Amino acid sequence: MLIPSPRVDQVEELLRRLALNDEKSVGMVLTSGSIPDTDVALVPKVDLLVRLGALVAVGAATASLRRTVQLALAAGATESEIVGVLVAVAPTVGLARVVATAPKLADAIGYDVASDE
Predict the structure, then answer these.
(1) Is position 114 within any domain?
(2) Is the whole-model pTM more than 0.85?
């Protein structure tokens, strides 16, 4: 007989609370992106790359992309990993979103892709 680990219990409990729209749990997730004293957090670099993918998916403004790129770079992400996020979400978000987001992401990283060189 398998005994569930405490980590699985935390994960299951968090999902249950979010599915039930528990105000406290939803509030903590929406304000901080994590729940204190649980094992359900991602390491900072991965967390920021996932957030970047979500921003690409919703068509976020350059300022939002720029801030998340800055935080991701500070957390140890490379420019290649940041562009890799755009490539990874492309099949899900579609060509139009990728084409619209690529120059914004380039600007957020500090590249000038608008020049005719």
Answers:
(1) no
(2) no
